[in-house]
What we know:
- The chain is mainly alpha-helical.
- The chain has 17 helices and six strands.
- The protein has helices at about 1-10, 25-30, 30-50, 75-90, 95-100, 100-125, 140-145, 160-165, 165-185, 190-210, 220, 230-240, 245-250, 260-285, 320-335, 345-370, 370-380, and strands spanning about 55, 70, 155, 155-160, 300, 305-310.
- It has a two-stranded antiparallel sheet with strand order 1-2. Strands 3-4 form a two-stranded antiparallel sheet. A two-stranded antiparallel ribbon has the order 5-6.
- Strand 5 and strand 6 form a beta hairpin.
- The longest helix is centred in the C-terminal third of the chain and has 30 residues, at about 260-285.
- NADPH dihydro-nicotinamide-adenine-dinucleotide phosphate binds next to helix 14, strand 6, helix 15 and helix 16.
Amino acid sequence: MLYLLIACRSEAASVLSVSFPLPAMGQLWDPQALLLVLAWLGFQGLLYLLPLGKVTQGMPLHDGTRLSYRINGLHALVITALLAAVGISCGLRLSYVHDRCIQLSVAATIASFVLSAFLYTRSLFVPESALAPGGNSGNLVYDFFIGHELNPRIGTFDLKYFCELRPGLIGWLIIDLAMLMKEWETQGSPSLAMLLVNAFQLLYVLDALWHEEAVLTTMDIVNDGFGFMLAFGDLSWVPFTYSLQAHFLVGHPQELPIPAVVTIVLLNALGYYIFRSANSQKNTFRRNPSDPRVAGLETIPTATGRQLLVSGWWGLVRHPNYLGDLVMALAWSLPCGVAHALPYFYVTYFTALLIHREARDEHQCRKKYGSAWNAYCSRVPYRIFPYLY
Ligand code: NDP
């Protein structure tokens, strides 16, 4: 992550060249940045505790019980946005986040380490039934990394659920906005390319928080323990590397011809359409298979009593939602032009992540649905990209 950020701020912005000056260790550490990161986490934590939004039940646990979750991520985003707007109109220099981005990312990584150490230590004192099946190997390093406890909570405060969408995703938007403010300061106005990147990623985060309840059925919440992998991913990796395109544009402004803008907007709209309709189709079907919007779709019965969709989006490929996500990822990089590979890091990394995630999900589904899953695979042979993969 540090390597990417340093490369992004260098003139060459090359992923392969290490000729740019690397900062000394002392320059990476800034107590003020750590205080800011802690204040950010505390502020988002307070917003999570506000009695706004509904409370809903998660998926049944191994013992049949269900945990309650408050759905108020969108409220947290709106309150944060309002405060940011008031702050900026009162002279707050949000571009500070650009100037101290490296130190802030180091501070967020330290916070992720400390949180993971706390999580691992407390997991040693919880009953075996509270542990995540995948993170219970007995190997300290592996369990620390993958996550030992499934749903660590302090009272009703669910640490994994809190970190999953709020500080990182809302933080990502704040970093994007900080890059836009920096460009405004240095160039006199934000560029079209910067506005596109900010708008696309705002849409993505708004969508995630609007559908916050859907996170309760994801692998991260249902199967994975909370350890360094998720803590670092949520608190450091997502906000600091997903904002790489906006960061790149500050030092490497791009002129976009109008036909290119139109093409990129259409590509993002296409990706979003596939992503949203595929996710909504499955969520609607899982909540109520007789819903008129999905009742006409063809299905395969499974021994568990649940059915698998084999027509509609889920009949095109086995993960149409990943396909849409990747089309959007490409649209977020294109405003940065084609002269540098660095802004394409996200789409490249994300392709690898989703291919790996698809394989993990496939493994779980085969275990869960057995021969019905094999029948689904023969009906729908492609995993993510039609006729390719
Ligand atoms: P998915 O939403 O793809 O869910 C997979 C589950 O869907 C399976 O385990 C199975 O569960 C069910 N399913 C699979 N096939 C079918 C079918 N044919 N019919 C009905 N149900 C089926 O999981 P993810 O959590 O991986 O992804 C959610 C979204 O989040 C995606 O859009 C993804 O792109 C995005 N994402 C984004 C990331 C980022 O960093 N930006 C990271 C990870 C994901 P069951 O049968 O038990 O219901």
